[in-house]
Amino acid sequence: MSLIALDTTSSTAPQLPPPSDTVQLLRVIDNVGSAQGGDSIRLLCTGIDAAHLSSASVTVGGKPATNLSIYQGSWGPYLSNETILVTVTPPGAAGLADVVLSANGSSDRAPKAFQYAADRTIFPFATSPNFLLYDSIRNRLYAGHKDRVEVIDIAGKKVLSPLFPVSGKLVASQFAGLSLSPDGNRLYISDSGAGMIHELDLAASGSGYSIDVGKAIDDPGTVYPERVFELSNGKLLGSAGGLFLIDPETRAGGWAKDSFGNLVPDVVWNSTNRGVYAF
Length: 279
Hints:
Blueprint: E1 24-28, E2 32-34, E3 40-46, E4 57-60, E5 63-64, E6 66-72, E7 83-88, E8 95-103, E9 106-117, E10 131-135, E11 140-144, E12 149-153, E13 158-163, E14 175-180, E15 186-191, E16 196-201, E17 208-212, H1 213-216, E18 227-230, E19 236-239, E20 243-247, E21 252-255, E22 271-272, E23 277-278
Parallel strand pairs: 2-9
Antiparallel strand pairs: 1-3, 3-7, 4-5, 4-8, 6-7, 8-9, 10-11, 11-12, 12-13, 14-15, 15-16, 16-17, 18-19, 19-20, 20-21, 22-23
């Protein structure tokens, strides 16, 4: 934290000094784009703020990016003292490219942090997907929309028939997240609009179930799941303002609690090692 003394009797507007920290490029959040350029990407960084945005510049593959803007504050899983820079990529050659952020007389390089794709295919969906998930077993991409999951055959570069909950579409549905089971045979859909978790059996078309999260965890209010993952023990770990656990066999569970009996106000973002670990 820095303290700055201002002369409140002066008629001249105070000029804030630049941040004292050197700029750091922590992560290129959107790291794949078209070789034609024009893709909006986000950079997670420190050492730059909105008052000194004019001193900042970004290059991708040695070429200047354009339309630099800033978002500062708590964002998703990131800390409040970190900054999100948004910029538009220049054209580049297919392959990996360095991203360099410069500001306030310092710069930081992220080697091979952005990949220009060799080609691209545009799928003109009626509504924009809000969640994407890759299925490495079937080489398919699942795109979650309001009440359906679009299925893209990557090898064939075509859209297949969409997936719906076995019980059918719900008027209140708003799909918020997708995940695969540890063995890759079950697709889980977090339906935050309807307060449901939908499971689709990818190995047996037409099979699956839906769970009302509020009823399953015995919460009197409506619970709006944001994410859900199947753990190695078969239970479902999800988040909805806090963590919850549900046994899909009994359709029962509860809010997750720490060793002191307090609710865990957190978000589950992913799982690994076949559901042994969750982040």
